[in-house]
Structure formats: structure tokens, C-alpha cells
Design a protein that fits this description.
435 residues, 28% helix
């Protein structure tokens, strides 16, 4: 299978963008330089004028996570189409593809257009696409680029009808591949029973604009911890996904000359999904098993640290992921012995799956040292409330390094993120995001 690719010229152009006031943490001394030129200077976070708060990525942790996930997928016989919505960073997409990712996953048409602006050649869209304007654009893009591979979900006969009508009206020259999405009670989208799934598959078969390629789904919304009951729900769902794929193949809804695409797997239970879709299929049924985990790239210091199969307490054999995200903010006030306020809030850091965690303390221009016993109890728009233990060393003006939880709601707040080297302070690159 031909590897997925991106447009080298578009990626190079990213590095030519000039820095200015739009990027709020970037030192004014770097304004007017290209991203490439600024990175080449190796500016330092605390000595060269970066404004706080600032979120950074650790280069060593990024590379570790890329290699770890690639090796794990190869060992378990599954492909990886990481969800790009986590970062919306083409530079990072390119690194994921460079480490063997089969493609990149999108959530909506707006994200898809960003991907295509940078030439991503193979995309899964993990939703049903029914917007006529988006479908007209898609039809044109598939015609314009014969090498572009695309697949999206279908979960209703009505959706199939709307897609078919829009694509026919747009004069689509090749069929759009689709997967029947299997849902579950308590989950999100997707068919809830076998009869509906078969009716959707039949509608696709009768459509001149669509072609059924397999089944897809998402298990992550069914459980939010790694306890036995949660893992039981995930296992049952994956079994249902397998059974639906077999039923569609046996029912003649799938092209026997093509592998059956079967995809699921967020970042919390990809171990169970890989076990369920990676092996053990009926003889003669060729399957393309694809995980869509995205948060592995940066991991975190909260939700995924606790629940990931390769988190702080690994459930599977393998090297644990490392958190690549760090936020730095200053102490702006210490109104009492028990409370400090930091210059970081909801506009700067994630808070939907856990609050930031104070990890490091940097005072008086010294080196960062571990910070224990401190906790963020609340976030306002621009302030973090830190509960202080007796004898806390924090003083107004000090810097605090914070671990973050749930990377998907960090990247959207930062259009340009410095990447730091092994010392945690020297900037070796910048990552541009597009939300």
C-alpha cells in the first residue's frame, strides 16, 4: 500500500511565515523573522523575552511518543490514522506520517480543508458528511487529485440519500467511500442496531455516488475510567463492531476484492480495540484494521496519564508515553499564606478533563526544581487559583511549570507553540496550528 503523504512545498511555506504581535507569547525581538529564522536563533524561554503564560512542547517527549506508538501498532498488526483534531498542526501530521501512520483522521469538513491545503493524501472523516456545500467541495477535490483517498461515516438512510443527492448534483466522477458507523447506547452517533446497519448498507449499495468500504465507530464515549465494568463495555462494543463487519461481508454489501476497513480506537482503550480488530477474522476475509488514537502524540499529565494503556500505570506491555505539554505562568499575587494566583486561565489551558497540575518552580532566574504539595483548585478566564501548603516557596514573580490534561483543548488556544530542547528552555522549533 502506498504510504500517505503531504505537500512538501506547503510545509516549507509554513516555516516562511513571519512572526509578529499575532503570536502573543513570542518575544518582540523575534518579530519580522520567519519561523525558520526564529527557531535557528535558539531563543530561551526565560532569558529572551517570551511572555507568560506560554505553552511549550518537549521535543524529546514528542519523538519518544511517535516512536513508541509506531512500534506498538506494528507489533499488534494495526494501522494508525491519528485524529488530527488533537493538534491541527500540519508539521506534526507530517511527523506522524513519517513514523508510518496510514493516514490522518478529521472530524469535520473545515478540518478536512486544512488537511488538503497541506496535501494530506489519505483522510478518514469520522462523521457523516451531509452538508451540500462540503460535498460539492469534496467532489471537486476528488476530481482534482486522483491520488486523494477519502472515507467518511454513514449512520442513516436519510444521510445516505442526502450525500448521494449532493454528490450527483456536483457531478462527482468517482464514488465516495463510506463506513457504516456503529454506535451504542450512551454513546454518540452511529446506528444502534443490526437491522438499521443493514438498511444503511443497502442504501449505500443502491447509491450511484457511494461505495461501502467497511465499518467504523468510537468506543471512548462509552467509558471514562479503566475499571472492570468500563473495560467490559468496551469489549462488548468491539465484539459488536467485529460482528457487523462480518455480517456486511457475508451479506454481499462489500467488494470482496478490497480489504474490509474496520476502525475504532481513541486514546484511552486502543489496546482492547487492537486486540478485537487486529486478528482472528474468518478465513478468507481480508481486513484493514485502523486505530484513530490522536492524544498519544503529546500524552498529558491528567486524564490520559491515568487511563491510557501506556500511561503512568501501563495495562499492556510497552514503554509508557511521556507528557510533551508544559505551561509556564508567573505568580501574579499571593494574597494569603494559603493562596497564590497565576497568570494562566481558561483562555490558556485545558480544564474540561482535569485542572493543570503544578510540577516545577523557577525563582530568581534559577533552574526549575520540582514542586510538590501545590494544587490548582479553580481557573478563571486569566487566573489560576493555587492552594499552597505550609512553607510554600512561591513568591510574586516566580514561574510555575504546569502539567496539562486533555491535549485536545490545549492546542486550540495557541496558534504558535514553541518546541523546547532537552534543557526545557531552549526553543528548537515552533509548531503552527490551524483552528
Amino acid at each position: 500500500m502506498k504510504p500517505a503523504a503531504m505537500d512538501p512545498a506547503a510545509l516549507r511555506a509554513l516555516r516562511e511565515e513571519r512572526l509578529d504581535w499575532r503570536f502573543r507569547a513570542v518575544p518582540s525581538a523575534l518579530w519580522g523573522l520567519s519561523i525558520e529564522e526564529a527557531a535557528a536563533r535558539g531563543p530561551r524561554l526565560f532569558a529572551d523575552g517570551f511572555l507568560g503564560p506560554v505553552v511549550v512542547l518537549a521535543e524529546a517527549a514528542l519523538e519518544h511518543n511517535l516512536r513508541t506508538m509506531a512500534a506498538w501498532c506494528a507489533e499488534h498488526g494495526v494501522m494508525l490514522a491519528p485524529h488530527g483534531k488533537t493538534t491541527m498542526a500540519p508539521q506534526l501530521f507530517d511527523r506522524q506520517l513519517g513514523h508510518g501512520a496510514w493516514g490522518i483522521t478529521a472530524a469535520n469538513a473545515g478540518q478536512l480543508r486544512v488537511y488538503r491545503a497541506f496535501g494530506v493524501s489519505r483522510v478518514l472523516l469520522a462523521n457523516q458528511l451531509v452538508d451540500p456545500a462540503a460535498l460539492r467541495w469534496l467532489a471537486d477535490e476528488l476530481t482534482r487529485d486522483p491520488g486523494f483517498e477519502f472515507c467518511c461515516w454513514v449512520d442513516s438512510v436519510r444521510g445516505v440519500e442526502l450525500m448521494s443527492r449532493a454528490l450527483a448534483g456536483a457531478g462527482a466522477r468517482r464514488p465516495v467511500d463510506v463506513l457504516v458507523e456503529l454506535g451504542a447506547e450512551g454513546g454518540r452517533t452511529g446506528v444502534r442496531d443490526r437491522d438499521t446497519a443493514l438498511a444503511v448498507a443497502a442504501a449505500v449499495r443502491d447509491s450511484g455516488a457511494l461505495r461501502l468500504a467497511g465499518v467504523g465507530g468510537y468506543e471512548g464515549s462509552l467509558a471514562h475510567d479503566a475499571g472492570d465494568a468500563s473495560r467490559g463495555r468496551i469489549a462488548s462494543y468491539v465484539d459488536d463492531l467485529r460482528e457487523l463487519a462480518v455480517a456486511l461481508a457475508e451479506g454481499g454489501f462489500l467488494d470482496p476484492a478490497r480489504p474490509v476497513t474496520v476502525t475504532a480506537g481513541g486514546s484511552a482503550f486502543f489496546d482492547q480495540v487492537a486486540d478485537g480488530i487486529g486478528t482472528g477474522w474468518p478465513a478468507g476475509l481480508e481486513v484493514l484494521p485502523i486505530l484513530r488514537s490522536g492524544a498519544y502524540l503529546t500524552h498529558d499529565d491528567g486524564f490520559y496519564r491515568e487511563i491510557s494503556p501506556l500511561g503512568e500505570h501501563p495495562r499492556v506491555a510497552g514503554v509508557p508515553f511521556e507528557s510533551a505539554l508544559r505551561a509556564w505562568a508567573q505568580v501574579t499575587s499571593r494574597p494569603s499564606a494559603e493562596l497564590a494566583l497565576l497568570t494562566l486561565g481558561k483562555r490558556d489551558a485545558s480544564f474540561d478533563e482535569g485542572l493543570p497540575v503544578p510540577r516545577l518552580h523557577r525563582a530568581d532566574g534559577g533552574s526549575p526544581v520540582p514542586l510538590a504539595g501545590h494544587s490548582v483548585t479553580a481557573l478563571n478566564d486569566q487566573h489560576a487559583f493555587v492552594s499552597l501548603p505550609p512553607g510554600s516557596p512561591l513568591e510574586v514573580g516566580d514561574w510555575v511549570g504546569l502539567g496539562l490534561s486533555h491535549p485536545c483543548t490545549v492546542f486550540d488556544k495557541w496558534p504558535l507553540i514553541p518546541v523546547v530542547g532537552a534543557d526545557g528552555e531552549t526553543v528548537v522549533d515552533f509548531v503552527r496550528t490551524f483552528f
